[in-house]
């Protein structure tokens, strides 16, 4: 009887241990699931909000710990771009592209990195390998830039127009398109495009400055009616003054530069130096 009781207790203990192990296994699986979710959230956080250099350190450590993970290599490549290290980013994107799960978005990002280091032919080769059905803002913006570099103006215009239609924030691509027109000597079209860019983003000073350059090239020496701070007004007057001087109208240029100096709320050193140089030139 005692043996039966002992056997029964042993079986009960074994069953209890088995149940405990099962429970522990479930806990481990649940914990693993939580870790995956937490890691995914952390990856997104590092990509979007963290300091770029911190993100590079995080993804570098992660890739070293698990070099088979393409998502970690992708995070490293994007972080390197954000940190301004395009050369290292190109190598990181090369590593991403070796994975079977590399996407068309990855190839476009790789092309972007190549453009940043001046490898236009390499970027063009990568974009040519992207399926035509992959129609994204970034893809067409890069296509436009490459067409510009090849002086294929009709293609560039078509790509810029397509890119602008694929985003709700086209100010940057409109500014690029305007600058392309500016370099071609199509100043009136450039002015219109810069104006459109400012409409979408009134804080985009680059577009304001480019617009002034386009107007100056047409002999328009008054500032456009756009939103600007006092400092921006002074800087734009200075740009317009330099444009006038470059066009051969030194008197107009001097007047605009003087106005820029008077408008600026602080000491405008660059404008002061330019005015002195103009006055010395006239004196000599």
Write the CATH fold name of the domain at 50-134: Serine Threonine Protein Phosphatase 5, Tetratricopeptide repeat
Quickly give the structural class.
mainly alpha
Q: Which ranges are low-confidence, i.e. pLDDT below 50, for 5 or more consecutive residues?
A: 1-37
The biggest beta sheet is recorded as:
none
Which CATH class of the domain at 50-134? Mainly Alpha
Element order, helices and strands? HHHHHHHHHHHHHH
CATH-defined superfamily of the domain at 50-134: Tetratricopeptide repeat domain
N-to-C CA distance: 125 Å
CATH architecture name of the domain at 50-134: Alpha Horseshoe
Q: Please state the average pLDDT score.
A: 88
Count the DSSP helices: 14
Percent of residues in β-strands = under 5%
Overall spatial form: elongated
Tell me how many strands there are.
0
Radius of gyration: 30 Å
Give the % helix: over 70%
What is the compact description of this entry?
It is built from 14 helices and no strands. It is mostly helical and 284 residues long.
Labels describing this entry:
Serine Threonine Protein Phosphatase 5, Tetratricopeptide repeat; disordered N terminus; TPR_rpt; 284 residues; mainly alpha
Can you tell me about this structure?
With 284 residues, the protein is mainly alpha-helical. It is built from 14 helices and no strands. It has helices spanning 2-48, 52-65, 70-82, 86-97, 104-116, 120-128, 137-149, 153-165, 171-184, 187-200, 205-217, 230-246, 250-263, 269-283.
